[in-house]
Amino acid sequence: MQCVSILIQRCLLAVVQWWGWWWCGGGDGGGGAVIEGGGGRISRPDLTAPGVDILAAWSEGTTVTGEEVDTRVVPFNIISGTSMSCPHASGAAAYVKSFHPTWSPAAIKSALMTTAAPMSPTKNTDAEFAYGSGHIDPSKAVDPGLVYDAGEQDYVSFLCGQGYNTTALKIVTGDASACSTATNATVWDLNYPSFALSAHQSGKIRRTFKRTVTNVGAADSSYHANVVAPSGLVVKVNPSRLAFKAVGEKQSFVVTVDAKIGSNMLSGSLVWSDGVHRVTSPIVAFHS
Description:
Largest sheet: 5 strands, mixed
Strand order of the largest sheet: 8-15-14-10-12
């Protein structure tokens, strides 16, 4: 699986650039989406980055607006859209990587998501479907405290759980990886820094998520789980306290979510805090 690391990085980049690093201002950034399969969901977008009225390079092979009556030709233009958010997010990822050169793409993505600044569902009525974890904050992402890491085998198991056969899997991995009972994982068990559950019909639903976090903060640290949830969303975390004795140490926990699915999306969050860091993950439940 020597080539998988590069492939996973490319896959992560492709998914995150389009679906994950959104802009909030209308246009091609609205609406949200989910990656689904096997009854599971991964909510999109992951987070948002600056993408409105950005000064950017512009082709002199066309005009400012592209309209027939427009004769202006300029090397720069004011542009809005995901194509403007992507460079900001990519630069932020490179910034975090410069401080932590050994971190995986998943760890960097986790750091960016769990340290993102909260955004208002009043101004963005699609809530997490508009802005994901929140607005990117690169300076905080350098020191996230904990990260939800994932490696090559985690994504192979994820793809197997999505119904990939050996032929389809080989296109991604480039090797002889194969799906089996041991490598067939649900979406809920992918070590992702967000939680999503949905149902096709209104009513009560329960989902259990297994997660593992890696300590990248102080060696001797203790984190407590804090849950923010509206009426209709009940979240239980076990254990609710994680104690670390070393950098790089991993601790696992289980999140059980009971939701009453209706016409409106339910939005909550799980925050692991040690008094210095706030490792925040969105929790959403919605009618699909």
